[in-house]
Amino acid sequence: MMKKMIMAAAVAGSLASLSGQALAAHHAPPPPPGCNGGMGGPGGFGGMPFLGNVQLTSAQHKKLKAILQDSHPDFHADMEKEHQLHRQIQDLLATPGKVDESQIVGLQQQIAQMHQLHEAARLQTAIRIHDILTTDQLNQIRATQDKVASLHEQLRALTAPPPPEDGKK
User: Fold this and answer.
1) Which of 40, 118, 28 is nearest to 64 (CA)?
2) Cα–Cα distances in Å, from 106 out to 32, 45, 81, 92, 116?
3) Is 153 helix (H, G, I), strand (E, B) or coil?
4) Which 8-state DSSP code applies to residue 45?
5) Alpha carbon of residue 85 to chain centroid
6) What's the per-residue H, E or C state across 47-62?
7) Does the CA dihedral 157-161-165-166 come out positive or negative?
8) Rounded to whole angstroms, how far apart are CA atoms 43 and 51?
9) Which residues, 6+ apart, have CB-to-CB distance to 50 below 8 Å?
10) What do you get for the CA distance between the two ends of the chain, in Å?
11) How far is 131 from 91, CA to CA, in rounded Å?
12) Which of 17, 42, 91, 163 is 20–30 Å from 123 (CA)?
C-alpha cells in the first residue's frame, strides 16, 4: 500500500511539473487585459490546451494576442447574470407553498443557453488559434496531450481501490 502511495505521489508530481511546463510564461504571449491571466480556463489559451509548450514565432504571438483580445466576451457580466439566475431559483425554492417548476425550468434553460454560448465561443477561438499553428506545433501539442493522458491513466490505476477479495469477510 505504501509503495502505491509513493508511486501515486511521484506521478502526481510529474503531472504538476508537466502542467507547470504547459503554462510556462516564457513561451506564451502576454495575456490580453482582463483575460484572467490569459489562460482561458481549463482549456488553456482560448480553449487550446498545452499551447504554452509550443515555441511561437513573433508573428504567431501577434496573431494569438489579436485572437484572444478579439474573442474575449464579457464573462464577468455573464457570471453575474448566471449568479442572479441561481439566486432566483433559490428564492423560488425558499418560498412557502407549491414550487412553480415551470419557472425553475425556464431559469435552468437560460443558464444552459449561457453555457452553450460560452462553449461555442471557446471552440471558435480554439479553431482560430489552430489555424495559425504549423503542423509541427500541432504535433507537439498532440504529443503533450498523449503524455498527460497516459499519466492520468497511470494515476487512476495507482489510486484505484483494490478489487474485493472473494471468500474473505
Assistant:
1) 28
2) 35, 33, 14, 12, 15
3) helix
4) B
5) 23
6) CECCHHHCCCCHHHHH
7) negative
8) 10
9) 22, 44, 140, 141, 144, 145, 148
10) 20
11) 46
12) 17
Q: What is the DSSP string of 72-119?
A: ---HHHHHHHHHHHHHHHHHHHHSSS---HHHHHHHHHHHHHHHHHHH
Residues in the chain: 169
Angle, helices 58-70/101-130, rounded to nearest 10 degrees: 160
**102 vs 104: CA distance, rounded Å:** 5
Helix (H) or strand (E) holding 132: none
Q: Which residue has the cell 469477510?
A: 169
Cα gap 22→49, rounded to integer Å: 8
Task: Count the neighbouring beta carbons within 10 Å of the beta carbon of residue 156.
Answer: 11
Grid cell in block for residue 27: 513561451
Query: For the chain, what is the mean pLDDT?
Result: 78
